[in-house]
Amino acid sequence: MTARYRDLFGVPEFRVLFSLQALSVTTDSIRMIALSVQAFERTGSALLSALVFGAGMLPYAVGGALLLSLADRVPARRLLTGHHLLRFAATAVLALGGLPPAATIALVAMVGLVAPVGSAAVQARLPALLPGDGHVLGRSLFTMTAAGAQIAGQAVGGLLLSTLTTSGTLWLAAAGAALAALIAPALPAASIHARPASGTARETWRVNRLLLGDRTTRGLLLAGWLPISLSVGAEGAVIPYADGHGDPGAAGLILAAGAAGMLAGNLAVGRLARPALRERLTLPLTLLTGAPLLLFAWDPVLPLACALMAAGTFGLSYELTVQRRLVDAAPEPVRGQALGLSGTGVMTGQAAGIGAAGALTDVAAPSLVIAFCGAAAVIAALLLISHLR
Fold first, then answer.
1. What is the CATH number of domain 216-389?
2. Cα–Cα distance measured from residue 119 to residue 114, given in angstroms and rounded to the nearest whole number
3. Which of 31, 105, 355, 383 could be a cystine partner for 55, CB 3.0 to 4.6 Å?
4. Rounded to two decimals, what is the model's pTM?
């Protein structure tokens, strides 16, 4: 039976987690755009502005490698309250101003270091709260909310910067983090599984080796990482592609079409498709992440490029089924870390894919680079076919 949104929001703890997710993504987006503008205004350096903007993502892989075991060792209420208090404190310090760029980057990176732990703690609670098909719908709703909140946060941040100082905008972001810290204690006290009394980093490495050493969980992790990372990597060539068509600003339209495709895919597959149909669509959807991008080899006009990008990102909804299978395959005591490792791999892989595609455009036509990303995604899906059927 297909779950409904009313079923999700009928669960009090889910409402709290959903509120935390929306607040976290929105305020982080506002904070990062404000800091980027602040860095550019103070230094005039576009490179430094970009480094500040990406500083929260750079340490994501490190946090995933060293800290993820906390998601299963610390109760979610305590962990998420501490996470949002850290976000508030860091944003408040940034709002006070006066920090040199290096200190700003270091502070943002510190928050980014613990971000995968907070995300894993939230994801670990969903299977217990939303059994069966409800977990898939909850995941799809979180994905759509994250995309929508990111877009809204950037738009609101831009509007705030036009009326307030960067410091004032940062204080509003800090207020959002403080509100999240006040909401988190509303989570019920949840029991946690007894775990070996080893250090956090050692335990994280031990469980990561366990998950990657098992054929089933390793295959599902790779299935969640590779097609997404390779297809999304095409975004690294979108700006030069649009510039080659005489309108670099059109890159925003192509990327927006990609965001719309992802939202539509998560809605259609997560909410409208029945579980049995969703299972059968897993492999076709995975192939769809790359197949439309192959047509970029013929250098399509911008409207067609938008349509192809949207079609490819529609296929990203295959990840809903892969995540459900991972929840079933991972041992329950380490389920939070398994989901955290999945998310860390996707974040790291997308960053690497986008960077690699951008570098390739220095030696190849952007249209061919995008097509190459699509071909790589299709090949990855075929190599992982046993985990996607």
1. 1.20.1250.20
2. 9
3. 105
4. 0.83
